[in-house]
Amino acid sequence: MTTTLALVAELEQLGSEFDGVIAPLVDEQAIRAAQAQFLGKKGRVSEAMKALGKLPPADRPTVGAAANRVKDAITAAVDRKLGELVAAARAADLARTIDVTLPGRPHHSGHLHLLTQVRLEAQAIFAELGFAVAEGPQIETDWHTFEALAIPKDHPARDMQDTFYLSDEIVLRTHTSPVQIRTMQAQRPPIRIIAPGQVYRRDDDPTHSPMFTQIEGLCVDENISFADLKGTLVHFVSRFFGKSLAIRFRPSYFPFVEPGAEVDMACSFCEGRGCRVCKQTGWVEIGGSGMVDPDVFAHVDIDSERYTGFAFGMGLERMAMLRHGVNDIKYYYEGDLRFLGQF
Ligand code: DAH
Predict the structure, then answer these.
(1) I need a labelling partner for 23 at 20 to 30 A (CA). Which of 93, 99, 241, 331 fits?
(2) Does one domain contain both 183 and 331?
(3) What average pLDDT does the segment 288-303 reach?
């Protein structure tokens, strides 16, 4: 039979046992679990107190007081232990030394490639003049690339563009001009498009790459004249370079235009005074252009008695080079962040 003295002793024993239980614990969850094990509804203190009913009523306050002391002691031990853990964590934080002189870790943020920026800008500038963007395949038929542009198989102009042939009739397009043909096949005048895109030639040196980017322009309507061509290019150049630069045409030959001309603009570096970029001439070439040849219209069933049109083609790498001073076309494609990050 449990005596009052024995029960008080058991309660005190639980109190000191609890100290031993939580001593090695290092996280709050485990400490709370131990606390519940002793003080919970079905905890060890409650279990011990079940014997209370069998004791003489006169002794019960003594036992009750002992139980309260144990509960208070356990609660205090938990608080003390948790306080120690917090203090230890804070001390560990403070002990960790931070070297504020170490350089920070840089974050690289990506951005559009220079050529993409230039293409989007060109598209936006031509959009101001009502030009929509047109596209065509890079793997193109010989017919769209050459025949329909009045460059038959034995034509000497084919030598101007060293072509990658995939088969007798399929090529990697050597220029964006076939998009003119595809557009005129799909659409009746008035037509006003630009066609930016990649083109391919067997060519490889500091100013030529086997793959590069052109932007083609085509405008077909009644009463389109060479003056419209010039006005369009003058507007583009002044917007793209942010200053008005003179444009001049040098008569030249492209089978799909008549008359045809090479387009020069006043050198954007020296503004026409003469420098290394323009080889002291004051002028830099930016592309080819001309009035759409009636033979081309015949291939796409457009009445050349009623309609006239102009066309032009420019190299985007060259435009970017002239604006940013890029002196080797390879830089565009190497993916070197030291180059790309400058733009
Ligand atoms: N397609 C020509 C080339 O790549 C450039 C060109 C010249 C395009 C005259 C034109 C043009 O539209 O009218 O060399």
Answers:
(1) 93
(2) yes
(3) 97
